[in-house]
Structures are given as structure tokens and as C-alpha cells.
């Protein structure tokens, strides 16, 4: 399965393994430091991401940037990717067949980046990485360690746009991540 960055990117850029290929404008491969200690995994591209080909560049992304700044995370130091690399129409949840088709790409990215910590942004990310039995409300803010990687589930940044009170949780969870990294490095 494992491919090097160049090969992987080339394969993904031409991918039509699922029906999302028919409605996308651009594939959103992922961006950031390929040796990052922290990786962020979102759900899938929204309209802005689809237009620009980069993850988290719309409203939710701007909010995430502000949270990064508040806790001292630099976007260029982390790696950011999504569960699916093409936009689901009308921002619906990615369907299981789409996730199954796409997830190997993300797994390959994780193997290549080798992060110490993976921040799971929202329910879709959490359940597709750790399992459907995980509930975001119960899991957020709590470490889960699996196969040498520490996972921190937290709210999806778009949820912060709908509910201001979640911002406090989000910042708190990111602070835990920063602290964990300081302890181990
Ligand atoms: N929401 C996501 O889950 N990912 C993005 O890249 C943008 C918005
Ligand atoms: Fe391929 Fe993933 Fe895009 Fe589907 S979402 S077409 S599997 S890159």
C-alpha cells in the first residue's frame, strides 16, 4: 500500500475511485510539514477548499487559525488533511463507500508523516479513525493512545461557528496537545 509522497500525490491527483470525483472542482490532498509532530484530520473539503485545493481555508479554517495562534501552534509546523479528499455535494457527510475508497490515502499520509499526535476534528474524523463506537461528546478532550499514536478528539471548527461555547473546549483541547508535546520533546 505504501507509496512515497510524490507517487501518492500523483495517484490522488488523478483519483476517481468514488462518486465524489464527479462533482469536485479540486482534490484537496493535504498540506503542511511532512515531518510534523502533530497532524490534524478534518472531514472533507467545503466550498472554499474545493475551489482552492487546500484544506481549512474557509470560515472554519480561519477560526482554526485563530485558535492555533491563541495556543502557539503554527500552521506551517503541522500537517492538515481530511477523511475524504473531494468535496461531498452540499457539504453532506461523506458516505461509507466514499470513506472506504479514500481512507487508504490518509493512512498512507499518516505513515509518511509519522506524527506523535493526531487531532481528530469532529465526529466524522473520530469515528472513521478510531471506530463508530466513539462519540464525540464523550470523547472530546480525552487522550486515546493506539499503536504508538496519541489521538485527541475535539470539536470540528465548523461547530464553533454554530456554538460559541465550544470555542473554550477547542482551545483547551489544543492546549493539552501543546503541553503533551512539550513534555515529550
Ligand atoms: N471542513 C473540513 O472538515 N475540512 C476542510 O478542509 C474544511 C472544512
Ligand atoms: Fe478519490 Fe478520495 Fe476523491 Fe473519492 S474522495 S475520488 S476516493 S480522492
Structure notes:
- This protein has a 6-stranded mixed sheet, sandwiched between helices.
- 45% of the residues lie in helices and 14% in strands.
- It has 8 helices and 6 strands.
- The termini are far apart.
- Helix 3 (59-71) packs across helix 8.
- The protein has a single domain (5-184), classed as Uracil-DNA Glycosylase, subunit E (3-Layer(aba) Sandwich).
- It has helices at 5-13, 47-52, 59-71, 96-113, 122-129, 136-139, 157-162, 166-184, and strands spanning 31-32, 38-42, 79-82, 117-121, 144-146, 149-154.
- The protein is α/β, with parallel strands linked by helices.
- Strand 5 and strand 6 form a beta hairpin.
- The chain binds uracil (URA) and iron/sulfur cluster (SF4).
- The site of uracil has 14 residues, from helix 3.
- Uracil (URA) binds at residues 28, 42-46, 49, 55-56, 58, 60-61, 82, 158.
Give the overall average pLDDT. Answer: 97
For the largest beta sheet, what order do the strands appear in spatially?
1-3-2-4-6-5
Cofactors, ions and other ligands in the entry: uracil, iron/sulfur cluster
Shape: globular
Compressed to H and E, one letter per element, the order equals HEEHHEHEHHEEHH
In CATH, the homologous superfamily goes by the name Uracil-DNA glycosylase-like domain
Q: Judging by the overall fold, what is the CATH architecture?
A: 3-Layer(aba) Sandwich
Strand content of the residues, in percent?
Answer: 5-15%
- The secondary-structure class comes to alpha/beta
Unreliable stretches (pLDDT < 50, length at least 5) are none
Tally of individual helices: 8
Rg calculated over all Cα atoms = 15 Å
When the domains are counted, the total is 1
Amino acid at each position: 500500500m505504501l507509496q512515497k509522497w510524490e507517487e501518492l500525490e500523483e495517484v490522488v491527483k488523478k483519483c476517481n475511485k468514488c462518486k465524489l470525483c464527479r462533482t469536485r472542482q479540486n482534490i484537496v490532498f493535504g498540506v503542511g510539514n511532512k515531518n510534523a509532530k502533530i497532524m490534524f484530520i478534518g472531514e472533507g473539503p467545503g466550498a472554499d477548499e474545493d475551489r482552492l485545493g487546500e484544506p481549512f481555508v474557509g470560515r472554519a479554517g480561519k477560526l482554526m487559525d485563530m485558535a492555533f495562534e491563541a495556543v502557539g501552534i503554527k500552521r506551517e509546523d503541522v500537517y492538515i488533511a481530511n477523511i475524504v479528499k473531494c468535496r461531498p455535494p452540499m457539504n453532506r457527510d461523506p458516505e461509507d463507500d466514499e470513506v472506504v475508497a479514500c481512507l487508504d490515502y490518509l493512512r498512507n499520509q499518516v505513515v509518511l508523516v509519522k506524527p506523535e499526535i493526531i487531532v481528530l476534528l469532529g465526529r466524522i474524523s473520530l469515528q472513521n479513525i478510531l471506530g463508530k463506537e466513539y462519540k464525540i461528546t464523550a470523547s472530546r478532550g480525552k487522550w486515546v493512545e493506539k499503536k504508538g499514536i496519541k489521538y485527541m478528539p475535539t470539536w470540528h471548527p465548523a461547530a464553533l461557528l454554530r456554538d460559541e461555547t465550544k470555542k473554550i473546549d477547542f482551545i483547551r483541547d489544543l492546549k493539552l496537545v501543546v503541553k503533551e508535546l512539550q513534555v515529550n520533546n
